[in-house]
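Quick one:
INPUT:
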């Protein structure tokens, strides 16, 4: 009797999920799981595909991960497109690596699509994280000139600091000049010990850039003379 009750409950749940799986993302995930357990993989894939079209990207991630496994050995083209979508949604580099591995000679075309996607979303101001992901891609692809262009174009001391290790040694003059243009107004932007210590941290990075010793010394003379009446700042500068 218990087995009959269990079977009836399972059928009722199946009917409920079949009726409402497009109304709720959790129902959709559960329906895919149930179909998978029943060995109905093609139907599970169809439901998952409907789900990723129906729900916002951040809700459809689990469905896409199921499709990632389903497509891998069944449909190379859908597998590639699904990997790309997961990377767009999750910014998870494991999917970038998988996508590159399977793309072969088509990688340059796929890479262009990826860069255009993140450049487009960044320019529309959708997600602040997209400001750096294009740079990360360029670095992974050893396109250092393009990475430098993006970093300098940001006009951000924080961005310069973020990619200091990868780029300052390759482009010492360009990197120092970018720092110089930003550090002078940054010094003037606030007062106080905490700010001065932050300035010194950035100056210390600048000082470590190769082949710019004379330019750095000239900059230091300018800063010290301009702010000679800030004893607390002068005190912090002595720690360089």
């Amino acid at each position: 009797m218990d087995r009959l009750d269990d079977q009836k409950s399972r059928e009722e749940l199946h009917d409920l999920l079949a009726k409402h799986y497009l109304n709720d993302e959790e129902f959709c995930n559960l329906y895919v799981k149930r179909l998978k357990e029943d060995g109905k993989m093609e139907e599970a894939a169809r439901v998952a595909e409907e789900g990723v079209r129906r729900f916002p990207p951040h809700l459809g991630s689990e469905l896409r991960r199921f499709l990632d496994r389903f497509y891998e050995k069944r449909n190379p083209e859908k597998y590639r497109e699904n990997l790309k979508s997961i990377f767009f949604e999750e910014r998870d580099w494991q999917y970038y690596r998988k996508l590159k591995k399977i793309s072969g000679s088509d990688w340059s075309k796929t890479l262009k699509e990826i860069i255009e996607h993140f450049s487009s979303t960044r320019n529309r101001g959708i997600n602040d994280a997209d400001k750096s992901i294009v740079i990360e891609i360029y670095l992974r692809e050893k396109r250092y000139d393009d990475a430098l262009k993006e970093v300098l174009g940001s006009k951000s001391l924080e961005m310069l600091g973020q990619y200091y290790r990868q780029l300052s040694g390759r482009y010492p003059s360009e990197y120092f000049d970018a720092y110089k243009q930003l550090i002078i107004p940054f010094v003037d932007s606030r007062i106080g010990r905490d700010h001065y210590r932050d300035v010194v941290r950035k100056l210390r990075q600048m000082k470590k850039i190769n082949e710019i010793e004379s330019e750095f010394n000239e900059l230091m003379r300018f800063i010290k003379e301009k702010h000679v009446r800030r004893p607390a700042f002068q005190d912090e500068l002595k720690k360089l």
